Amino acid sequence: MVKAVVLGAAGGIGQPLSLLLKINPLVSELGLFDIVNTPGVAADLSHISTPSKTAGALPPNDGLKATLKGAQVVVIPAGVPRKPGMTRDDLFKINAGIVRDLAIAIATTCPKAFVLVISNPVNSTVPIVAEILKKHGVFDPKRLFGVTTLDVVRASTFVAETLGDQKLAPKVTVPVVGGHSGVTILPLLSQSQPPLPAGFADDKRDELVKRIQFGGDEVVKAKDGAGSATLSMAYAGERFADLIIRAIGGEKGIVAPSYVNLAADKDGGEGLKKAIGKELEYFSARVEIGPEGVEKILPLGNLSTYEEGLLKAALPELETNIAKGVEFIQTAKL
Ligand SMILES: NC(=O)C1=CN([C@@H]2O[C@H](COP(=O)(O)OP(=O)(O)OC[C@H]3O[C@@H](n4cnc5c(N)ncnc54)[C@H](O)[C@@H]3O)[C@@H](O)[C@H]2O)C=CC1
Ligand SMILES: O=C([O-])CC(=O)C(=O)O
């Protein structure tokens, strides 16, 4: 049983994610923080007849610190979402500062917590959290996760649709690696289980890859100015948080997709760096998770020639995104 905290709990993702965590039987205490509306959200959820206690706080009177006290899992969906025409990187200006300030509170209040970052741009916000934790001397790469589960969820759904059977969606597995924006999202369709039909046309494959890479844009466009994915993200966020909570509880064999610092790996990510041909500090892949955090970053497996090309195209943007997050903290006067 763990204490889980949601930062940004009154938002489009925060509310349904908090609901799902409230009904997770492995959560004993649920702390909710936002700059608006958390007392109401917490009062509402607290009437649900599950064992966990729920409390909500606002910034005055150190509400953030009180909420974080004793937290083992902190999920961060705080920040602004995209509007049509924006990239995730366009959110950096506002969200980088929000995530930085929340990370400072984590570093000083619950430095051993597992931190799950949803706020975009994930490729940069995860390095921001890491740099803050480093500055406070409490960084453990094994306990910091960028949440990329929605990419994997979308891949399963879209492949099932392509196979003409929605009922397959919960069973389809497709590794999605790299990062969490546009071309940095690398769906490895050649490893899909069940596989795509033999002789699946190249143009159909390209379409499917694009749809997974730009699935977020599909929702942003449909919401027409009212934000981005919230309900599917809450589902994905809880699915990931649940795996983390079960790993903390000692369950064996937990494997989840996540954007992590490669120093989290047993061999410092050397195997993965070799596979991608670049000295990157962060990459998303399937990771084995145990009670102390990441135990191993799993190899990417065999990439098709086409996927090698996708990987090559992803690396420059990923590298720029990472550097932007790192520099934001390293060059700042905090
Ligand atoms: N990793 C992923 O796959 C996904 C990430 N996202 C990202 O999640 C973030 C949140 O999206 P939504 O929930 O739709 O936005 P939203 O605007 O509905 O909710 C964000 C919440 O954060 C709160 N907030 C702002 N500053 C805060 C602070 N300093 N401390 C605590 N809370 C604060 C706001 O008051 C608001 O309630 C966005 O950055 C979005 O791009 C969205 C979908 C998928
Ligand atoms: O597209 C967005 O801005 C939100 C997001 O990260 C996603 O839905 O994958």
Automatic annotation (TrEMBL):
Domain of life: Eukaryota
Entry-linked Gene3D superfamilies: Lactate dehydrogenase/glycoside hydrolase, family 4, C-terminal, NAD(P)-binding Rossmann-like Domain
A GO biological-process term: tricarboxylic acid cycle
Any one annotated GO CC term: cytosol
A Pfam match: Ldh_1_C
Matching InterPro entries: L-lactate/malate_DH, Lactate/malate_DH_C, Lactate/malate_DH_N, Lactate_DH/Glyco_Ohase_4_C, Malate_DH_AS, Malate_DH_type1, NAD(P)-bd_dom_sf
Keyword Oxidoreductase among UniProt keywords: yes
Keywords: NAD, Oxidoreductase, Tricarboxylic acid cycle
Domain Lactate/malate dehydrogenase N-terminal: 3-146
Protein name: Malate dehydrogenase
Organism field: Exidia glandulosa HHB12029
